[in-house]
Specification:
It comes from Rotaria socialis. About 90% of the residues lie in helices and about 0% in strands. It is mainly alpha-helical. The N and C termini lie far apart (about 135 Å).
Length: about 240
């Protein structure tokens, strides 16, 4: 037992000397350095994975953004074509003007429903530009410009159409008032002529009698009718003028 205890003490003594030796210290430092390198390697791998994931997200966002921009470009092009047709057919009659006004209102209402989507797309585009992820910035800027231009044109065109519609309504109102007043004057004149008074007979005899059409109110209405008609002709096609 004493021999075993002696050998155990010698073994522990040798172990302590080895631990205190330069060889063990160097090995320990290497192991520690290796652990640090492995930790840094794991951290770097994680950073690379996150970067790759972010690049994939950016690429998807850019692809999705380009796709949505193309969708809006197609939509704007369809609106532009529709407006071209409206411009070509704007010289029409009253019923045609009402149809054009309805068409323009539908375009405006449709845009109002899509407006939030366009605002979101615009904000995303600005973020992509700040991140240098949007290569074709000119196309994006042109998208905003095209839409602002087409909407301004549509709003102006609708106001123009509404003004012409008001002109048609004024013309119809003048016409109805003129015929109603003319009928009233004519009926009154017939009553006077069927049972003429001495004053009426005297006017007829002297040639100073004024018939139903010789009336200032009727003349004023007729002038308004002519003036409104001249303005409507400038907005109408040949078929409507006829």
């Amino acid at each position: 037992q004493l021999n075993e205890l002696h050998e155990l003490l010698l073994a522990k003594h040798n172990l302590i000397e080895r631990i205190n030796s330069n060889e063990f210290i160097t090995c320990f430092k290497r192991a520690k350095h290796l652990h640090e390198v492995m930790a840094e390697y794991s951290h770097t791998i994680e950073l690379i994975k996150n970067r790759i994931k972010q690049l994939e997200i950016n690429q998807y966002n850019k692809f999705n953004f380009d796709k949505r921009c193309q969708k809006w470009n197609d939509y704007i092009q369809a609106v532009e074509q529709n407006l071209t047709v409206i411009q070509h057919n704007s010289r029409t009659n009253y019923q045609g003007l009402l149809e054009i006004d309805t068409n323009l209102s539908n375009i405006i209402n449709d845009f109002n429903q899509r407006q939030q989507e366009l605002i979101q797309l615009t904000n995303e585009g600005k973020q992509l530009i700040e991140q240098n992820l949007l290569v074709d910035q000119h196309t994006f800027a042109k998208l905003e410009q095209r839409w602002q231009t087409i909407m301004k044109t549509i709003l102006n065109k609708q106001q123009e159409i509404k003004d012409i519609i008001k002109l048609w309504l004024s013309y119809q109102n003048y016409l109805e008032t003129y015929y109603r007043l003319l009928k009233s004057k004519y009926e009154l004149e017939q009553e006077n002529l069927q049972a003429p008074t001495l004053g009426v007979l005297s006017q007829i005899k002297q040639g100073t009698y004024l018939n139903a059409t010789n009336n200032e109110e009727l003349k004023n209405l007729l002038e308004k009718l002519y003036e409104t008609n001249r303005r409507l002709i400038s907005y109408s096609d040949v078929k409507t003028q006829a």
